[in-house]
Write a structure and sequence with these properties.
The structure holds 2 protein chains of 2 kinds. Chain A is mostly beta strands. Helices cover 9% and strands 48% of the residues of chain A. The longest helix of chain B is centred in the N-terminal third of the chain and has 31 residues. The chains are: A mainly beta, B mainly alpha.
């Protein structure tokens, strides 16, 4: 009987601890919407990003101008955000599928114009400079050959003007070294668009190799250009890609940011020596920016010169998933 | 003391099984709620919460592959050597609880997360054999099938509740992943408390001399245990990871990815429903018959997957058969092995059997993946079905002569 009492007391105490933490977590995050200000996604000298400031606006899409001390929020809580030229994308928890996510396409006033159900867990999001093309990458659990714990990725593209949706790029055909290439383990991630809104770059991964691929949206084709390039992001002038380069087998710091000049195919390692696991973005033609985690809830956006000089500095504290609205 | 050859008569469920099995089942239920809560949100936590990419996760995954096989054997032998099955099992449960704390503390460090996940796996590896040895010691040998059946039923009830609790916490806190981890930690601690309070270890064998390590391999000199192990490993070699089964179903039916976890839920429901009745059947008609019957169900699963025809009704049949397969094999093999093992090395023997099985699964999954990658899922399933068909007669021979 004593044992039952002890077990009961332990249950009550542990339940109280769990519920207490949940109440703290709910108050910290705020289940209600953030302070909604006047956010515009039109071209201008501003950044949009996902805010990681604790409080009711945690995780919301936010906008700020230099020196980034003031920010305005939308009512959308997003896992990843991006925006350009009046169009935004917010990968957010689905209102219909519990535990699922959806792609919210945002208009010039940052209000959702439509929502598309999405397969998997949000990882990357991009919008073409013109605002016409939207892309996303998700992680899909279970797509693995050695067990159910591994991930694979799935990337999709939406042409908002022609209203064409490519739900997964795995249906496109890929050529490597001029020959058609097929494998069920092909994964694509990290799309970035060229200015013609048809050509785009992405990562193709298969059998342990990571290729930079050039895609043609209209033809549904990919062509492998180079190895060891992940998460490319095209500069506003269209001449260079910033990307993640695998430089080490050390799982603590496998990547360095590097810039690839598309005319000469020359690579330059950037001055950021920490391992960056993000699809970087361009602040302008000379500067790239990227999110770096501080802990499990907070991140900062850093910037570093794109030519390998200088050193990294914090651009926007408590932010991630940055996009420059002036860079179109 | 080999009682397995005694044809069991139906005994009262409560009397034959005893409170210790119920206590162990309750501990497993609570622990599985905790574990499945984390499993349900871990991918989203890593990707959204910590911004890990697919490659980063792949690197982490490599850290703990293969770790558990060794720790399982070590845990089994230690439990026997020190007559400390309850304490070793408790250490395993405790390590998995601490691992939740580690996940929280790791923040964005991929190494830290990898270490936490490895600790969780080691905890699971260490506790499984001592727990099954305790079940063996706590039930009438004639009722072992139903004792394991009951335990596995309670276990899978926990697996069922876990994801629901996780989604509830996420909804209540506005997507706070850390709150799910804290809740999971509290539930895991409750599991350890319940184990400490209500599970009793039979220490009557404590005055027997401890078996030296070399006797671990000597276990295989026993003809009947050796044959059972051969059969388990052979059948393991023709059984592929369940991730494949769900993946093939998902691709063939073109199901939305958010439905993907539902496939495992479906299998779990079937497992839950079948585990106790099949345990009772095993006690009454012979454990080897139920194990073989389970593999006939597996043969049907692979056959249906190879054809990939039909709609959702076929999927439901596949999941039901798959759950029945697990229910017919998972606990029943342990029930068959327990009585063949000397009490002084029972945990070690069970760990040896489970390790052999796990290594066989790993091999077959790699082979299956290669066939899929270089040919097609249909061919891989057809080969797996053919494998089961070829293995069955030999398995029947080994299993029959082990009983």
């Amino acid at each position: 009987m004593n044992k039952v009492l002890v077990a009961g007391a332990a249950t009550v105490a542990l339940a109280a601890a769990a519920i207490g933490y949940a109440i703290y977590a709910a108050s910290r995050s705020g289940a209600a919407g953030g302070a909604v200000g006047a956010v515009t996604l039109q071209t201008g000298p501003r950044l949009v990003f996902r805010s990681t400031v604790d409080g009711p606006s945690y995780g919301h899409l936010a906008e700020a101008s230099a020196p980034y001390s003031q920010r305005a929020f939308t009512a959308d809580r997003c896992a990843r955000v991006y925006a350009a030229n009046g169009t935004g994308v917010c990968l957010r928890p689905s209102t219909e599928d519990v535990g699922g996510y959806e792609i919210a396409v945002l208009g010039p006033n940052a209000a959702a114009r439509r929502a598309i159900p999405m397969n998997g867990i949000p990882s990357r999001a991009k919008v073409s400079a013109s605002g016409r093309m939207i892309s996303w990458t998700t992680f899909v659990t279970g797509d693995s050959y050695t067990g159910s714990t591994q991930f694979s990725t799935r990337s999709g593209i939406l042409d908002t003007k022609a209203n064409v949706l490519a739900g997964t790029l795995e249906t496109f055909t890929l050529t490597v070294d001029g020959r058609p290439y097929q494998s069920p383990d092909l994964n694509y991630w990290g799309v970035t668009f060229a200015s013609d809104d048809n050509r785009f770059y992405a990562t193709a991964a298969t059998k342990g190799r990571h290729y930079l691929v050039e895609g043609d949206f209209a033809r549904h084709t990919f062509r492998a250009l180079r190895e060891n390039v992940e998460c490319p992001s095209l500069s506003p002038d269209g001449t260079r890609l910033v990307f993640k380069k695998r430089v080490s087998t050390d799982p603590a710091k496998p990547w360095r940011l590097a810039v690839l000049d598309l005319a000469t195919m020359r690579e330059t390692l950037l001055a950021e020596s920490r391992s960056v696991d993000d699809q970087a973005a361009w602040l302008d033609d000379r500067t790239v920016m990227y999110g770096l985690r501080r802990d499990s809830r907070h991140a900062d956006v850093w910037s570093v010169p794109a030519d390998g000089s200088g050193r990294p500095r914090v651009l926007v504290p408590n932010a991630e998933s940055p996009a420059a609205l002036g860079a179109s | 003391m080999y009682l397995s050859s005694v044809r069991p008569r139906a005994a009262g469920l409560g009397r034959a099984i005893g409170p210790n099995v119920w206590a162990l089942g309750l501990v497993s239920l609570v622990t599985d709620v905790s574990a499945e809560m984390v499993t349900a949100v871990l991918p989203a936590y890593l990707v959204i919460g910590l911004s890990l990419s697919v490659a980063q996760y792949g690197l982490m995954d490599g850290l703990y592959t293969g770790v558990t096989a060794l720790t399982r054997l070590l845990g089994g032998y230690t439990a026997d050597r020190w007559r400390a099955r309850k304490y070793i099992a408790g250490a395993g449960y405790g390590l998995s609880a601490v691992a939740k704390l580690g996940l929280l503390a790791a923040g964005g460090s991929a190494l830290g997360i990898g270490a936490a996940i490895a600790a969780d796996r080691i905890g699971k590896g260490v506790r499984t054999a001592p727990r099954d040895a305790l079940i063996t010691a706590s039930a009438d040998p004639a009722a072992l099938g139903r004792a394991f059946g009951l335990h596995r039923t309670l276990d899978s009830v926990g697996a069922f509740i876990g994801p629901l609790v996780a989604l509830g916490v996420l909804a209540a806190t506005g997507q706070a992943f850390d709150s799910v981890l804290v809740t999971s930690l509290c539930v895991a601690v409750l599991g350890v408390v319940l184990l400490g309070l209500f599970v009793r270890d039979d220490r009557s064998a404590a005055d027997q001399p401890a078996a030296p390590p070399r006797e671990m391999l000597g276990l295989l000199r026993d003809r009947r245990f050796r044959r059972l192990t051969y059969a388990a490993v052979l059948l393991g070699l023709v059984t592929v990871g369940d991730g494949f089964v769900y993946l093939i179903v998902q691709r063939w039916q073109d199901l939305p990815v958010v439905w993907f976890p539902l496939l495992a839920v479906g299998t779990n429901i079937a497992f839950l429903v079948f585990a106790t009745p099949l345990g009772i059947l095993a006690d009454r008609f012979g454990r080897w018959r139920v194990v073989i019957g389970g593999h006939v169900a597996l043969l049907a699963v692979y056959g249906l997957l190879a054809f990939q025809r039909g709609g959702l009704a076929v999927v439901i049949v596949i999941l039901a058969l798959y759950g029945a397969f697990y229910a017919a094999v998972d606990g029943v093999l342990m029930a068959a092995a327990g009585p063949l093992l000397p009490a002084s090395l029972r945990t070690t023997g069970l760990a040896l059997l489970q390790t052999g099985q796990a290594l066989a699964y790993l091999l077959s999954s790699v082979a299956f993946g290669l066939v899929w990658q270089f040919s097609s899922a249909g061919l891989a399933c057809a080969l797996a079905a053919a494998g089961v068909l070829v293995a069955l007669p030999l398995a029947v021979w080994w299993l029959r002569t082990s009983e």
